[in-house]
Amino acid sequence: MSHSLKSAGKAEKPEVDTSLIDAFGGVRGMVDMTVPGFVFVLLYTITKDLALSSWSAVGITVLLALIRLARRETLKHAFGGVLGVGIGAFVAMKSGKAEDFYLPSMIYGVVLGLVYLVSVLVRWPLIGMMLGPILGENMTWRTQNPGRLAAYTKATWVWIALFALRAAILFPLYWAHKVTWLGVAKIGLGVPPWLIAIYLSWLILSKAPPPIKVLQEEEPAEPELPVPTEAEHR
């Protein structure tokens, strides 16, 4: 199958905005990952019962995943939430330290931030790799559209800054064993900064050159063979 490159009109702002939100799990995905942490810190602050708080967080995560399953929604982010909360609960109960409930996700955030940083340094910004296929341009932004390469690089730096901010606030609270404040900070550094990063990324991309979309050409129809007439059979 052959391909052709066609310059598309400027991407509509709502399209870019929706694509960004979907690429990062959607608002529902962020809520699903925020609620278990809220349940954990609330119960632990009230009861100081690590096991109860951990199992309650795991239970609410599984419940949210089942609701997604019942609604026939994607389980990709729900599964990630169950896995993340489950690991955090296991580590916390194993060590006996409530703050360790948040440690796996904190380490994951640092690793993810480093991945974003490396992607910028090697000129393969992760935002572009995520959005290119969604917006129909694939990787044309890297070789044929330097303006979009620059925009994707700037947008990726926004997310690197977000991960760095989270680490700078969360780890000192973790080392100080401030479980309640750590839980509150984890929630506060969830959806609000995520929405800000989405908006800044959208703002950067809305001012970028239009994407060069990759369109698949329809395969040429096979030529029809002439149907022999009765005379030709004779």
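Above is the first protein from milestone M3; the second protein from the same milestone is given next.
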Amino acid sequence: MNWLDICALEEINVLGSRIVAGPKGDIAIFRAADDEVFALDDRCPHKGGPLSQGLIYGKRVACPLHNWQIDLENGEALAPDVGCAHKHSAKVENGRVLLALREAALCV
């Protein structure tokens, strides 16, 4: 898998996000309180709200439009809502945030 070097981890605020242009639209990279990073399409499965502008808590992000709760680990909306934001592989290595675009995970 080819990893793209996005930025230094410190360039993304704790409980913040950064937007990266992907081949099929924007991708939001989220930084959790424990410095773990997650990447999802920057589009809520409900009405397409920008997840990158949502509040992050734990391993979830709340869509700023209608407060849908999205699991950062798999992109799934939490019950009672149903839907999924496509997930991308992301990791931190040597203090750098890396993103792999080629294997966007589809929700099942």
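Note on the second protein: Strands lie at 4-8, 16-22, 25-31, 37-41, 55-57, 60-62, 69-71, 87-93, 96-105.
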